[in-house]
Amino acid sequence: MGETVVGSMVFNSIFPIVMEIGFWGMRMAFRKLDSIRAPEGKNTSCISLQQYVNLYSGSTYFMHFKYSGI
Question: Where do the domains of the chain lie?
C-alpha cells in the first residue's frame, strides 16, 4: 500500500515539471519552423496578426488545473 502511495506522490511531483518542459520545447520548435519557412528578408511566415499571436503566445493556460495542483 505504501509503495503505491509513494509512487503516486513521486509521479505527481515530477510530472508537472516534465509537462512544462515538453510544452516549452514544442513552442520553441514551432517558432523555429516558422522562422525557417519565412520568406527571404522576413522573420516570420505568419500572414495575419492573429496567426503571429497564436504562434508566440503559447497554449491556453488553465488556471483551475494549475491552482488545484498547488
Answer: 2-69
